[in-house]
Design brief:
mainly beta, Alpha-Beta Plaits, two-stranded antiparallel sheet, 2 helices, elongated
Length: about 90
């Protein structure tokens, strides 16, 4: 997965890979962490502000290119790449 182009080994047209954040995310557990967003070159990861100065990462599927950098740097291994269905061209 990592090191492969985003289009590598995809099923028939109509699918793409995109990053997803699980409940294992440090931010979801009340720990301040923005590592994924700091390493996201296409700026596909933004942060929703929460009470007490915390924030939670949100993925913009229109900007995510499935490079896998967020997966690589996540200290909680909370980010993974998943197939999503895309609109026909």
């Amino acid at each position: 997965m990592l090191g492969e182009p985003a289009s590598a080994q995809l099923p028939a047209t109509g699918f793409a890979r995109r990053a997803r954040i699980s409940e294992q995310c440090l931010a979801a557990r009340g720990i301040v962490c923005r590592t994924c967003g700091g390493h996201c070159e296409p700026h596909a990861i933004g942060f929703r502000l929460l009470p007490a100065g915390r924030s939670f990462p949100l993925i913009d599927d229109t900007r995510c290119n499935a490079c896998g950098e967020c997966v690589r740097v996540c200290p909680a291994q909370a980010v993974s790449l998943h197939l999503i269905e895309t609109a026909p061209a």
